[in-house]
Write a structure and sequence with these properties.
Number of strands: 12
Order of helices and strands: HEHHEEEEHHHHEEEEHEEHEHH
Largest sheet: 5 strands, antiparallel
Oligomer: single chain
Distance between the termini: 15 Å
Strand content: 15-25%
Number of domains: 2
Helix content: 25-40%
Number of helices: 11
Radius of gyration: 23 Å
């Protein structure tokens, strides 16, 4: 699901898939063959394997998913794995409350009671790889117990093999390569650095970007961990006050407001975390042009862009090799 819909799904308690042109899925005969025929009539140009895979997703969502089933939603907008339980049968709502996003329509839904939200860093890399597929909907086969143990459950599901077309398989490899790199970097920074060492690391990253930066005293810093500026002495504006949080949990609006409260004329606030920000915190950022928030995913992007300028110490801690991966757009 796109970011805007993912946020609403967590706030309002539902999961949704697209394919609005196919209409109400409950009106199609409850068999995979019937779903394949309906899909092929609408998109005859698609390959046979694509039709089989997409029809299987639609059939499973509308007919196999039942009340009481557990569901995992890896939300990329906050880098968490959300675990919930389905509380309704399949629902078709073409005029849902997200209709203002007319470029996307997700009328096929189940209501969900979300039971827990867990940082990606709390799971093994192999478990994250399993849920990193580009397929819209699938059963977790190998690591279901690891995920469900977070909410005090331990059920294991058996998966039937669903063949995928070449483009989907390629997108899966691409997604896994990108997400594995992000997970690796964030886990290393979280486990190898103390909070104070993380402040020095962020100061170093800013220096790699062309700033002069210094870490404030360990106490009495008023919530400001790093001071960055362009001139050598640090007298000329703009001055950037940076707060660093090594946590992989969510940063709330109050913490961002506290940083904004330290800003004077010619000063800007930068909040850096390995985790994510709450929706109110992001709204606050949009309304405060002097405040910028960088989450874990954005920090990784900066590190990859300036990786060649990092000191040997940090390159040793974050050993990376440049590779090329396919860039395939969604069909």
């Amino acid at each position: 699901m796109p970011k805007w819909l993912g946020e609403r799904a967590l706030e309002q308690g539902f999961i949704a898939i697209s394919w609005p042109d196919i209409g109400d899925l409950s009106k199609i005969e409850a068999s995979r063959d019937a779903f394949k025929a309906e899909y092929a009539d609408l998109w005859p140009e698609h390959k046979e394997r694509t039709i089989r895979m997409a029809a299987g997703v639609l059939f499973r969502f509308s007919n196999e998913m039942q009340e009481g089933d557990y569901v995992l939603f890896p939300s990329k907008h906050n880098r968490h794995v959300n675990i919930g339980v389905i509380t309704s049968r399949y629902i078709y709502e073409p005029l849902a409350d997200w209709q203002e996003n007319s470029d996307q329509d997700y009328p096929n839904r189940h209501t969900v009671k979300w039971l827990g939200r867990f940082p990606r860093s709390s799971f093994s890399q192999s478990a994250l790889n399993e849920i990193g597929t580009a397929i819209t909907l699938f059963l977790v086969k190998n690591h279901s117990s690891e995920f469900l143990s977070k909410i005090g459950q331990a059920e294991v599901y058996e998966e039937d093999n669903v063949p995928t077309d070449d483009d989907t398989a390629t997108r899966t490899v691409t997604n896994l390569a990108e997400e594995t790199a992000q997970d690796f970097i964030i886990k290393r920074l979280h486990t190898r650095l103390t909070g104070y060492e993380f402040e020095h690391f962020i100061a170093h990253v800013l220096e790699c970007m062309g700033y002069k930066a210094r870490v404030t005293e360990a106490s009495g810093d008023g919530g400001v961990d790093v001071i960055a500026h362009r001139d050598k002495l640090g007298f000329e504006p703009p001055i950037v006050k940076v707060q660093c949080k090594r946590t992989t949990n969510q940063i709330e609006e109050k913490q961002v407001r506290d940083l904004a409260g330290t800003l004077g004329d010619g000063e800007f606030g930068l909040f850096v975390t390995l985790g994510a920000y709450s929706k109110p915190a992001r709204v606050f950022e949009r309304n405060k042009p002097k405040v910028r928030l960088i989450d874990g995913e954005q920090l990784v992007e900066l590190l990859l862009k300036h990786y060649g300028n990092l000191s040997p110490r940090y390159r040793t801690m974050l050993p990376l090799k440049q590779i090329y991966i396919p860039d395939i757009l969604e069909s």
